Amino acid sequence: MLGSQSTTPLCPLMRSRRESPAYEDELYTNKEKRKKMTSYIADSAVFIMGNCNVDSSLLITVPSVADELKSSDSILRFDLAKEGGLRVEWPEPEMVKEVRKKAEQTRDSEELSKTDLEVLAKALEHRETAVLLTDDYAVQNVAVQLGIQVKPIAQKKIKDVLIWQKQCIGCRKTFEKGDECPICGSPLKKKRKKRLKGKGYQEN
């Protein structure tokens, strides 16, 4: 009849289950499991290489990664991963600042792209439960300094953390940064300043 509405739920069984304490406990347990479950932060190589054996529902990346994908195969892998549960999240600005600061300390900042910084920032945000998937040595170098777990995709992982400096190919003077020697004008070449024992790696 017009003017009368039924108060009977579409699915009484579902309603009674949702209102039960057991269902609330189940939701809480599943939420806690997701918190403890390992996530994988994916850089562009995951979709370019296509040999990452990780469930898409456990993958997290940043929007700028999609912008770096040019081939139809890599774009298809990205789209399929999204359908499978890949999460695309913007990095937190404070995390980006922290990553940039650390990259300047290790002298890797000149090697890192905007996307590299954002992927590292997202990995830092999920540091307690995430593993960073990358083959980029500069990204790995900064990640380990930030206490981020790293797993390479196809390349060999770096063994140690490296601190870099610049050395003039002419007068041999060393500097913290720059491309040209302020003394003689010759080009500056990247040179290892310090080697630290690396931690935070996972085997392939």
Write the SSE topology:
Layout: H1 12-18, H2 21-36, E1 39-42, H3 44-49, E2 59-61, H4 63-68, H5 72-83, E3 87-88, H6 93-106, H7 114-125, E4 130-133, H8 137-145, E5 149-151, E6 160-168, E7 174-175, E8 188-197
Parallel strand pairs: 1-2, 1-4, 2-3, 4-5
Antiparallel strand pairs: 6-7, 6-8
Helix pairs in contact: 6-7, 6-8
Keywords: Hydrolase, Metal-binding, Nuclease
Domain Ribonuclease PIN: 41-125
Protein name: Endoribonuclease Nob1
Task: Explain what this protein looks like in three dimensions.
- The protein is α/β, with parallel strands linked by helices and 204 residues long.
- The chain folds into 2 domains: 37-156, Rossmann fold (3-Layer(aba) Sandwich); 159-199, no CATH class.
- 40% of the residues lie in helices and 18% in strands.
- The protein has 8 helices and 8 strands.
- The protein has helices at residues 12-18, 21-36, 44-49, 63-68, 72-83, 93-106, 114-125, 137-145, and strands at residues 39-42, 59-61, 87-88, 130-133, 149-151, 160-168, 174-175, 188-197.
- Strands 3-2-1-4-5 form a 5-stranded parallel beta sheet.
- Helix 3 (44-49) links the parallel strand 1 (39-42) and strand 2 (59-61).
- The chain is elongated and about 55 Å long.
- Mean pLDDT is 78; it is low at 1-18, 27-31 and 198-204.
